[in-house]
Task: structure prediction
Amino acid sequence: MANSNIEWTEQTWNPVTGCTKISPGCKNCYAETMAKRLQSMGAAGYENGFALTLMEGRLKEPADRKKPAVYFVNSMSDTFHEDVPFTYIDRIFETIRQTPQHTYQILTKRAERMAEYFHSRSVPENVWLGVSVEDRRYGLLRIDVLRHIPATVRFISAEPLLEDLGKLNLTGIDWVIVGGESGSKARQMKAVWVENILRQCEAARTAFFFKQWGSWGADGIKRSKRANGCLLNGSVRQEFPMSLRRKSK
Result:
């Protein structure tokens, strides 16, 4: 468990590490790169590199923190990966239910397995459910699955955004995060794609969070992630759902 450098959360909690690629957004996976780096450094918990590993010793970590925090669950994996048994996911949610002071953000590319899990289980009130939406072919289908799962907050992470998503159905979606890809092999995100999402979020009154340009700037020039920054049309657009509006202050 660690403080997070991810702008839209506070802490990361990884009771699972490692994953496998299932769609184009996975191609340059930051978690895979980080896991291999941690493995080479001899970091505890990454002896298996990016092979999927159930980290039972981490299951109770959030219970040690009494002060309310926002946790991104399994930033180094996918909670609903097909090799994570539902019995183990039950243990993750046992900790979540036992720590109602915290808010938990769970993001997946495996929306159908998430829906299967919650078909016979309720979503705790302190859980936000999200799906990755990197393109039209794979991502848009995940939104349709997500909107039918009852949750306090439903969100979309369009990062890395790989193409124009076209017309979005944001019914039942509370929050959209958008970001470009980073790294030497990063694929370019175009400003018109971001602006299309922004306009639709404004029309639907859905909170919009622009995370970063990544390795390609709004001007189409490749440079460092820091140099490109996170300004959209000259301003910061980082909104949160109303239940966590305090974080944007």
Observations:
- Residues 168 and 200 are 7 Å apart (CA to CA).
- The first helix runs from residue 30 to 41.
- The longest strand covers residues 103-108.
- Residues 2-248 form a domain with the TIM Barrel fold (CATH 3.20.20).
